[in-house]
Specification:
The chain has one domain. The radius of gyration is 19 Å and the shape is elongated. Helices cover about 80% and strands about 0% of the residues. The relative contact order is 0.08. The chain is built from three helices and no strands. The longest helix is centred in the first third of the chain and has 27 residues. By secondary structure, it is an all-alpha fold. Helix 1 packs across helix 2.
């Protein structure tokens, strides 16, 4: 199991890599680093919000969860 600091560091480096690659893609399409960076930043924010809302929706779905007991499973179905 990874430590919290390792997980956080991995998340930050993943985000930096994503911003860099999206900036490059935006630059190739627009010819502007500023525009490419803007596209990357907006994409990161939209992606974060979308993922958060997706997780909130899935947190309400009991399907596929492995629960501790039959009583817990019945409560989850309500």
């Amino acid at each position: 199991m990874d430590s919290a600091i390792r997980l956080f560091t991995k998340a930050v480096t993943w985000q930096v890599a994503g911003l860099f690659s999206m900036t490059l893609i935006g630059f190739f399409f627009t010819g502007s680093v500023a525009a490419g960076g803007g596209i990357a930043l907006v994409g990161a924010v939209v992606g974060f919000v979308s993922y958060f809302l997706h997780e909130m929706a899935w947190s309400k779905v009991a399907w596929g969860r492995i629960l501790g007991s039959a009583t817990t499973e019945l409560k989850a179905r309500r």
